[in-house]
Amino acid sequence: MAAAVALAPGALGPLQAGRARLVAVCSARLGPGLRLPGSLAGRQVGRAIWAQGWAPAATGPAPKRGYSSEAKTEDELRVRHLEEENRGIVVLGINRAYGKNSLSKNLIKMLSKAVDALKSDKKVRTVIIRSEVPGIFCAGADLKERAKMNSSEVGPFVSKIRAVINDIANLPVPTIAAIDGLALGGGLELALACDIRVAASSAKMGLVETKLAIIPGGGGTQRLPRAIGMSLAKELIFSARVLDGQEAKGVGLVSHVLEQNQEGDAAYRKALDLAREFLPQGPVAMRVAKLAINQGMEVDLVTGLAIEEACYAQIIPTKDRLEGLLAFKEKRPPRYKGE
């Protein structure tokens, strides 16, 4: 992980890591033994990019769909491992109706525990984050709880929120946010950490923290500009403007927008359709592709191409690659095992 940047008292500091540090960070994220080519660090490439939870397990075909019985009604976060034809899809359902799904201490603790479990679960292929509460995705921080904190408690708690959201962003499998309702402040930051965002046209979303004389603290000042561009992100944060689903689609904040259905879960249904599209693909390739994209977006093009080269090298010796070629030759669906 990148080293923390020390700030001088009362000053923001340059907040700019050197090129050598950035290359070192990228090499570390690529996995043991990887080196970036050329003058950066040579061309040695290791064979374990999917180490530490990056190697997915096999998923077998199944003709039907269904849910497991893991969710508990009283939980603020319901974790469902879908079964049968949807095997490999995990749904994290926020279920804190009385608090408009706001990010409380308990909910953050539950999210952290769930995400930690997903990191090491080789059977997981795609994660969907949704709300179990109609009309609400996540209203942001629990301000009633926040009002009871003293000043010394606020910073560490916001750091916990930021850490959990970062963990979601760093999950090795594709993640989809299904926004069927209100997503404000930390709720939108949670969605921004996902690879793909899908929204109902009636959904409302925005980073509204400046109304409360604070700034987004869960990654919003960094992820929103990367998603929609710096100038527009500044405009939205400075104005605390709230967008509906169509407006969000227009600025590139979400990938798909749908008219809300009678059940109130149009975005979730679209997210599930997308997740199903991902299931047939090579599990190792999906994870390594995500790593290459994520790391490449943080560096210059030359370094990014070197990251892609190193990532591609990890795919060459896999059994799945050979299976893909064989299946193409035999004109049949591939049977990938994540090896």
TrEMBL record:
<comment type="similarity">
    <text>Belongs to the enoyl-CoA hydratase/isomerase family.</text>
</comment>
<keyword id="KW-0809">Transit peptide</keyword>
<dbReference type="GO" id="GO:0003730">
    <property type="term" value="F:mRNA 3'-UTR binding"/>
</dbReference>
<protein>
    <submittedName>
        <fullName>AU RNA binding methylglutaconyl-CoA hydratase</fullName>
    </submittedName>
</protein>
<dbReference type="GO" id="GO:0004490">
    <property type="term" value="F:methylglutaconyl-CoA hydratase activity"/>
</dbReference>
<dbReference type="InterPro" id="IPR018376">
    <property type="entry name" value="Enoyl-CoA_hyd/isom_CS"/>
</dbReference>
<keyword id="KW-0007">Acetylation</keyword>
<keyword id="KW-0456">Lyase</keyword>
<keyword id="KW-0496">Mitochondrion</keyword>
<dbReference type="GO" id="GO:0005739">
    <property type="term" value="C:mitochondrion"/>
</dbReference>
<dbReference type="GO" id="GO:0004300">
    <property type="term" value="F:enoyl-CoA hydratase activity"/>
</dbReference>
<dbReference type="InterPro" id="IPR014748">
    <property type="entry name" value="Enoyl-CoA_hydra_C"/>
</dbReference>
<dbReference type="Pfam" id="PF00378">
    <property type="entry name" value="ECH_1"/>
</dbReference>
<dbReference type="InterPro" id="IPR001753">
    <property type="entry name" value="Enoyl-CoA_hydra/iso"/>
</dbReference>
<dbReference type="GO" id="GO:0006635">
    <property type="term" value="P:fatty acid beta-oxidation"/>
</dbReference>
<dbReference type="InterPro" id="IPR029045">
    <property type="entry name" value="ClpP/crotonase-like_dom_sf"/>
</dbReference>
